[in-house]
Amino acid sequence: MRPVKLKIALAGLGRIGKKHALNILSQSQMIDFVAVFAPTTAEFQWAAKNLAQYGVFLYSRYEEMMSHASLDAVLIATAAAVHEVEIIQALEQNLHVLCEKPLSTNIEACHRILKAAREKPQLKVMCGFTRRFDASYRQARQQVTSGLIGEPSFIRCQSCDKYDAGGFFVQYSALSGGIFVDMGIHDIDLTLWFLGEDTVPKSITATGSATLHPELLTTNDRDNAMGMIEFHGGKVAQFYVSRMMAHGQEDSTDVIGTEGKVTINAQPAKDLVNLCHAGGITREVPEEFWARFEYAFSQELREFADACLLDKPLPMKLETAVKALEIAAALQESLVTDKQIRFDEQGRRLLMASL
């Protein structure tokens, strides 16, 4: 018999925060949506219209929400720059934490979060890398770990967003940490998941361009980038990230082994419908990430709640989230400095370049 519901609060109602809010409401059998922190007037108004009717308490200050009685956990979906403060405050209140990726855009902050979490081992702290909860990616990983493609040795990933003519990502670029931290970190996490979380980078190289938005150069960002990681032991990862797809969301992955390969989402599609007409055969693709990964977000939340309520192990380690940020930051650094960054077998840098 399941224990009482997990009483959860949500911090942040930006684009992803709103999605999380509606997702939490849909999990009413196991989660009680207690409170929300809405830092801006627009977010507060959205919460008043869409959440208050369900009994969700609204707060304009995070500290006030943290003092709300009977909370068990908080889902953090605010800007990455404030994740450290909010995670540590939640831990100080003895709350479980599910945090949107990345844990932070600052490596030292990530290590402080990790230290704080280790000091509270009774609490569950997880970074939300949603693709790990996608049914297709899980099936692919089961095939890889079962040895169906031999020894996995090469991974090729791409994360491509539909072009946003409104320029949201341009405005956000000063806070995002850059295209590899903001977007490519999903592919980095998948790389560690498929090739081994203990793999150590040997060299990291990246390049890119500000094709449609040259103003991104002023924030050390790009709208297209490619990166490559060579790991000690010979495994290799290759990434392509883009914010200028005209047709829609396109995320795909190839894992290549010594006896075969597995491919996820090679031909992106919104559904199983193909339209056959005089001009050929066409199909629709997802407009945005939510259309592709909505199920994964729900599964992520369910497994986090299960871990909190039943004291189960979390499905992923916090240390891996820190390692993913370290790799993403190095790719971003290589992108900006046009330098290859190298590491010894213990993961210590051999070439020191800085932004």
From TrEMBL:
Gene Ontology CC terms: cytoplasm
Pfam families given in the database record: GFO_IDH_MocA, GFO_IDH_MocA_C3
Gene Ontology MF terms: nucleotide binding; oxidoreductase activity
GFO/IDH/MocA-like oxidoreductase domain sequence ranges: 137-262
Similarity comment: Belongs to the Gfo/Idh/MocA family.
SUPFAM superfamilies, per the entry: Glyceraldehyde-3-phosphate dehydrogenase-like, C-terminal domain, NAD(P)-binding Rossmann-fold domains
Name listed for the protein in its UniProt record: Oxidoreductase
Lineage, top ranks: Eukaryota, Fungi, Dikarya, Ascomycota, Pezizomycotina
Top-level taxonomic group: Eukaryota
Species the sequence originates in: Cladophialophora chaetospira
